[in-house]
Amino acid sequence: MMNTITTINELKKLRATLSAENKKVGFVPTMGALHAGHVSLFQKSVSENDVTIVSVYVNKTQFNDPADYENYPRDINKDIALLQNNGVGILFLPTYEEIYADNYNYRITENTLSKILCGNSRKGHFEGVLTVVLKLLNIVSPSKAYFGEKDYQQYLLIKNMSKAFFLDAKITKCPTVREHDGLALSSRNLLLTIEERKTAPNFYKILRLEKNIMEAKAKLEKLGFVIDYIEDFEQRRFGAVYLGKVRLIDNVQL
Ligand code: AMP
Question: pTM surpassing 0.85?
Answer without folding.
Answer: yes
